[in-house]
Amino acid sequence: xxxxxxxxxxxxxxxxxxxxxxxxxxxxxxxxxxxxxxxxxxxxxxxxxxxxxxxxxxxxxxxxxxxxxxxxxxxxxxxxxxxxxxxxxxxxxxxxxxxxxxxxxxxxxxxxxxxxxxxxxxxxxxxxxxxxxxxxxxxxxxxxxxxxxxxxxxxxxxxxxxxxxxxxxxxxxxxxxxxxxxxxxxxxxxxxxxxxxxxxxxxxxxxxxxxxxxxxxxxxxxxxxxxxxxxxxxxxxxxxxxxxxxxxxxxxxxxxxxxxxxxxxxxxxxxxxxxxxxxxxxxxxxxxxxxxxxxxxxxxxxxxxxxxxxxxxxxxxxxxxxxxxxxxxxxxxxxxxxxxxxxxxxxxxxxxxxxxxxxxxxxxxxxxxxxxxxxxxxxxxxxxxxxxxxxxxxxxxxxxxxxxxxxxxxxxxxxxxxxxx
Length: 421
What we know:
Elements: H1 3-11, H2 23-26, E1 32-37, H3 49-60, E2 64-69, H4 91-112, E3 117-120, H5 122-125, H6 130-136, H7 143-147, H8 150-157, H9 163-166, H10 168-183, E4 187-191, H11 195-208, E5 214-218, E6 231-232, E7 235-236, H12 246-254, H13 258-268, H14 273-285, H15 291-305, H16 307-319, H17 330-336, E8 342-346, H18 347-352, H19 355-362, H20 368-376, E9 380-382, E10 385-386, H21 394-397, E11 404-409, E12 413-420
Parallel strand pairs: 1-2, 1-4, 2-3, 4-5, 8-12
Antiparallel strand pairs: 6-7, 9-10, 9-11, 11-12
């Protein structure tokens, strides 16, 4: 592993633990390495992007990534980061999650321009008998060694841990041994919460005396307030656009605090030091422009969903600043205005009524007198178009029927109207 690559990872804040201070000089050029994901959810989430991008940076330097999906380990549950037992998934659920997460990874890597080998540990675990595993793998781990791991210790002292989850680290160690023997894999990487499991693999390879192996971890990300990264008020930020839309993803990054944005740019983009330094100066000298946040949002949204999705997300955001609604679907409008007051009105009656009645009946404004004054002062909008005549019927103002109407009173006070047939 080149010294330059290691230095770049350190500059980006992507190195925490390492098994050997001399990894950079000992790992052969072009060596295979692996990172694993347990398919316990229907989609990868934003935190999973960190190991994928670390792997991509290494692939750009000629190393060969092996992306492991834990069809076997995912069926018993990793105790790391959990204070109670995970709910077990069926074999069908796990396979569906593997397929989805693999497709997500392939799409991201295609945009970056790299390739990877994909493996599933279910393939080499499913036919191993319990007796074989206990003799060949379990024999090399003492209970004392396993209890010393922080993840196990915290569970034993807390809610307790089942034998199933207690054995998790031996399965992950078995993965590293298998990949070492059959794929020439010399390095495992992962989040710092996985360090106990990762070093168990190193210990197994050492005890089996099959060669020298290495590992390093990257820190778990939090924001400047110590909050776990990748969460919004609505929950996790997913890579599946059906669970977290490109618009919501883009907005998540746009809302990044000034104190976090440069750190995130280093981790989640491929921008070089010169460009990052330029953005850092902009944060210091002209924070109101939010150029760093806009760059971060564009880069990551494009990486995950593509350029077209990013442009759609940016166009959707402009609607909140008076931009045109043309071409936006009902679903997009509902998402953009999900946090504004809304009401429902009958389609036929409302189409025949005046715009004055529309604003009052919807609750967007309290009286016709107030609405008339607002129109006179140029402060009433229908679908972001200024209203000049409140006596017009909705049918005259909008000849084509619509399911949703966006009313605006003043600069940024919105109200969403759903027309029901």
